[in-house]
Design goal:
CATH class: Mainly Beta
Shape: globular
CATH architecture: Beta Barrel
Number of domains: 1
Structural class: alpha+beta
CATH topology: Sortase, Chain: A
Number of helices: 2
Number of strands: 8
């Protein structure tokens, strides 16, 4: 009888461990698979000149491509920075300059998936932002700082081309969200 109970407990523990492992891997795996579908949609958008949804029920579409050569980063940027968009990739914050335009283009992403690399960025690092029309803007990181979520001046427009990247902070937080944001400001180079 004791052997039977031990076996049941072992199987239950193993099932629980598998469940937690799959749950923990779900978000990063979903983010990586989405980037493959987004890249295909990006290519279709570039060829046709029209927004192409990555899957039929998507409420967003690719509008730019962000590259950071030093770190091997190549991300498709989505229209909008809602939670549903950010689950699949970095998003463009509505109301800020669009990729390829002059002004402050603000992109936001999750610290534990697509924007995790922000923690490693150094002053002078080069960021490349490719717009839907194929033009590529190059930016150099000029500053990084930590702000409260309510510090909205990072969204203010600028007369020069500026790229602002934002994500939650601290990078190793257990609970998502929180009151702080890590901000990278990069200027045209």
């Amino acid at each position: 009888m004791k052997r039977h109970i031990r076996r049941i407990c072992t199987i239950a523990s193993l099932a629980l461990a598998i469940y937690f492992a799959v749950s923990a891997a779900w978000i990063p795996v979903k983010a990586e698979v989405a980037q493959v579908l987004l890249l295909q949609a990006w290519k279709r958008s570039r060829m046709s000149g029209a927004a192409a949804k990555p899957w039929p029920w998507a409420d967003t579409w690719p509008i730019a491509r962000l590259r950071v050569p030093r770190y091997g980063i190549d991300e498709i940027v989505l229209a909008g920075a809602s939670g549903s968009s950010l689950a699949f990739g970095p998003g463009h914050v509505d109301g800020t300059a669009r990729p390829g335009q002059c002004g402050n283009c603000v992109l936001s992403g999750h610290r534990d998936t697509h924007f995790g690399f922000l923690a490693a960025l150094q002053l002078g690092d080069v960021l490349e932002l490719e717009a839907a029309d194929g033009r590529v803007q190059r930016f150099a990181v000029r500053s990084t700082y930590i702000l409260r979520r309510s510090d909205l001046f990072v969204l203010d427009d600028d007369s020069e081309p500026v790229l602002t990247l934002t994500t939650c902070y601290p990078f190793d937080a257990v609970v998502p969200g929180g009151p702080l944001r890590f901000v990278v400001r990069a200027e045209a180079s």
